[in-house]
Design goal:
Helices cover about 70% and strands about 0% of the residues. It has helices at about 10-30, 35-45, 50-70, 85-100, 105-115, 120-140. By secondary structure, it is an all-alpha fold. Helix 2 (about 35-45) crosses helix 3. The longest helix has 24 residues, at about 120-140. It is globular, with a radius of gyration of 17 Å. It has 6 helices and no strands.
């Protein structure tokens, strides 16, 4: 593995992490809810009374914000070394995993760990470990 130190930007990562922390903190303070994407989207698919508007606004923000950033001049080109079928299967597996794990990476990894939740620690260690194992198998054993 070779790291491209010329394009390493710790400041962007630091600012992004701070913004995520602030957003999660404000969300729980204002709404009394955990900022987990799977829970927000899941609640949008099966809405309860008066609950759909803020969920829809949140999901639209997830789509609109990168589009605005792109129009302002900025996305860094990303390379995905996978075909459409692999991406679809991976997305479905993540969706199933979030239902079995009662939350996603943002819910457990950001919000749960910040609340010192033992369940979120186990969940985060599980999905990180599974991710490491899959990458190792696909990149080194099957390559």
């Amino acid at each position: 593995m070779q790291i491209d130190w010329n394009h390493f930007t710790p400041w962007a990562s630091l600012i992004g992490g701070i913004l995520l922390g602030l957003a999660a903190s404000l969300f729980i303070l204002v709404n009394g809810r955990i900022l987990g994407i799977s829970g927000i989207v899941g609640g949008l698919l099966m809405p309860r009374g008066g609950d759909a508007a803020w969920r829809l606004a949140f999901v639209l923000g997830l789509v609109v914000a990168p589009a605005v950033y792109a129009l302002a001049g900025g996305p860094v080109p990303a390379t995905v070394d996978a075909g459409w079928l692999t991406l679809i299967v991976a997305g479905l597996l993540v969706g199933v995993g979030t239902r079995y794990g009662a939350g996603c990476t943002s819910g457990h990894g950001v919000c749960g760990l910040s609340r010192l939740s033992p369940r979120s620690l186990v969940a985060t260690l599980s999905f990180m470990g599974a991710g490491f194992a899959v990458v190792f198998v696909v990149r080194h054993l099957l390559a």
